[in-house]
Amino acid sequence: MPYVYLALAIVGELVGTAFLKYSEGFTKLVPSLITILAYGICFFLFSKALLNINLSIAYATWCGLGVVAASLLSVFIFKESLNAVGVVGIVFVLVGVVLLNLFSSSH
């Protein structure tokens, strides 16, 4: 269950981040409220995940997968560009998260 909480926290972060962009600097009410709610849910779920997952593993996974997913959101939803160096960076982040989860003795 802790990894379900972590996955849902990542989803909450992505929803919050997407609506943060839509909020246009918190000048639009509905996207701003969704941003605040999504980040609140995100941190609540992340705190639940931390009850059973070490901070080093949980935070690296949360940040790494969040960065990768946010990059993909920016390309596919917001039509922003990503160059070859960015793609290589995303691959490195994914490899780092996988290695940390597979080989860390901190579980």
TrEMBL record:
Q: Name the family the entry cites.
A: Belongs to the drug/metabolite transporter (DMT) superfamily. Small multidrug resistance (SMR) (TC 2.A.7.1) family.
InterPro entries from the UniProt entry: EmrE-like, Small_drug/metabolite_transptr, Small_multidrug_res
Cite the source lineage: Bacteria, Bacillati, Bacillota, Clostridia, Peptostreptococcales
List where the protein spans the membrane: 29-47, 59-78, 84-103
| Membrane topology of the entry | Multi-pass membrane protein
Q: Which UniProt keywords apply?
A: Cell membrane, Membrane, Transmembrane, Transmembrane helix, Transport
Q: Does the keyword ATP-binding apply?
A: no
- Provide the protein's localization: Cell membrane
Per its record, how is this protein called by name?
Multidrug efflux SMR transporter
This protein's source sits in the domain of life called Bacteria
Which Pfam families does this one have? Multi_Drug_Res
Does the keyword field hold Cytoplasm? no
